Amino acid sequence: MSQAPADPYAKYQRLKFDRPHPRVLRVTMYNPERLNSADEIMHGELATIWQDIDKDPTVSAAILTGHGKAFSAGGDFKMIEKIINDFETRARNWKEARDIVYNVINCSKPIISAIRGPAVGAGLVCGLLADISIVTKDARLIDGHTRLGVAAGDHAAIIWPLLCGMAKAKYYLLLCDPVSGAEAERIGLVSLAVDDADLDAKSIEIATRLAEGAPNAIRWTKYALNNWLRQMGPTFDASLALEFMGFTGPDVKEGLASHVEKRKPVFPESSPL
């Protein structure tokens, strides 16, 4: 007698799953004590989940959201400290950060993000790289890299200029100012901004329409459109390398300390660059 296939999602610890539609898989980032921040476990899981979804014949569309009132509050401080101090951790996280971006891009199934509350770090990566991004009007999107003291790597260079233009991308990526959901929709950084009460229903509605649509046509259209992002691969690779070079320098130590101590950072006045 043949055995039932193993559940490909049983191994995940920081990601929870449900089916709002038979062919829609909803992925919920779950680290409730830390506003769904990406610790070492979640960071690794966000790199592999898109490959599992891509291979799953029962899934035609996926939704990514966060548990409770937050999408994701960014990288866990303990993980960042280990990245700074330990080469093996730094190398592993560089690979995971690369895989998160490319696996979202290369996942054949359409991905919808449903964002409320703060969206920072690895969660924001997947949220903005999603094929359709939906935010609440009062959501707060923040690329916090330069405030931490490292280059804006992750997804920033590959997608922000394409979505909202170079002028807005430089403004928000250099200054790390928060972008409200309403403003993100206005500048083209996200697909839709809705009232908080409508977010979940809207994401399910769109995912259902995609799941019930022509699968080959939708997946081929996504593949073709994402060639815009694949062309920017060398730019992304450079930004990610510069980010992780920054984890070996002085700026990030002060940036992390200021976050932990909840104070304004005092960065060095000079740079060899």
From TrEMBL:
The keyword Isomerase applies. CDD domains: crotonase-like (cd06558). Keywords: Isomerase. GO terms for molecular function: isomerase activity. Pfam families: ECH_1. InterPro entries: ClpP/crotonase-like_dom_sf, Enoyl-CoA_hyd/isom_CS, Enoyl-CoA_hydra/iso, Enoyl-CoA_hydra_C. Belongs to the enoyl-CoA hydratase/isomerase family. This is Enoyl-CoA hydratase/isomerase family protein.
